[in-house]
Amino acid sequence: MPRYSALALIRHAFGAHHQWAPLWRSPTPKPSYDVVVVGGGGHGLATAYYLAKNHGVSNVAVLEKGWLGGGNSGRNTQVTRSNYFYPVSTRFFDHSLRLYENLGRELNFNVMLSQRGVLNVACSTHELEMMRRWANAIYLNGVDAETLTPAEIQRRIPRINLNGRHPIVGGFIQPRAGISRHDAVNWAFARACDSLGVDIIQGCHVQGFTRSASRITGVQTNQGTIHAGKVALVAAGHSSELARLVGLRLPLTSMTLQAMVTEPIKPILDTVLVSPSVHVYVSQSDRGELVIGGGADVYHSYMQRGSLATLEATIAALVELFPSFSRLRVMRQWGGTVDISPDTSPILGKTPIDNLYLSCGWGTGGYKAIPAGGDTLSYTIVHDTPHPLIRAFSLERFTRGALVDEGAAAGVAH
Known about the structure:
Blueprint: H1 6-13, E1 32-38, H2 42-55, E2 60-64, E3 79-80, H3 87-107, E4 118-122, H4 125-140, E5 146-148, H5 150-156, E6 170-174, E7 178-179, H6 182-195, E8 199-202, E9 206-212, E10 215-221, E11 224-233, H7 239-244, E12 253-262, E13 272-275, E14 280-284, E15 290-294, H8 308-321, E16 330-340, E17 347-350, E18 356-360, H9 370-383, H10 397-400
Parallel strand pairs: 1-2, 1-11, 2-8, 4-13, 11-18
Antiparallel strand pairs: 3-7, 4-6, 5-6, 9-10, 10-11, 12-15, 12-16, 13-14, 14-15, 17-18
């Protein structure tokens, strides 16, 4: 893999930048692989990368129905945080954040991680007390957190309206959290996978699976049948549809989570602001656009655009917090299909079907978990036993009633 550097940039400038090598190959599928990963988003690519890097399993195919990163990992709002409430969630997501902190150096690709902090604001004394409890819990579990008064919030974000229809009475911040560039994360993992011998096959639509008794033996695609030693389903909002092809029913609902960006403006917001009460979160990109998200749509859908009602509610909430933003124009709006589990925590690990593994149910928190999801699932695939960080997120928890209810810490309304 050619190494990116300032010297390489200068050298290629003399050739008008026409000599850069493609980031990854476009191979045709081989007849068989040790592992087939279904889903070419961030989680699928990270799983393939850590299989090759950490475990020496490089005979791996990543199958993507569309184009690489065209699903949820290219349609999110790029928030990277680990301020989850329960210890099992905190450990997992902080592992992911720590991997993100070194990801650019490890993959030799600028993922544009900006640890500007994620600030949650409370609009009632009851909500503030819950946030204090939340902040104390994650602090005791080794994750950075700091409670803030309204005056401290105003100093950090001068343009915020503290006295709107829902007055802000305080909040808390995780300083190490922030945003990164989703396209860069996808491309970085794809480039690293390719350099390690992984085949990334785009335009490859999975149509079924081959089985021998209780064992998965291959994947049927529009490019032919591919034999596989093991198969991982890492397809975000469409995971339940794929699982149905092997007779596995997953406790997931799929719906649209939409986002939008405004026209670019001068630097004005140097943190990620979240208001659970009015259902909006906002940050400012390096290009000056305000990146805005809100609650998930209220009906089940596989659309990638979202509803007008949710769009209007999100904009109204933003303008209540920042009246000066009311004259900005919305430039783009889109949606992603999120799969939400009953306890709003992911489903990771083995299934009742031999050699079939899952990474799904991420809901609105999949992007921030990409490195840890890939790291822990690859371990589980190789050792055929759950990684210690994901034992609590097994599919079996729904039969045992051992739920990890992270609805409040998910960041938006479900």
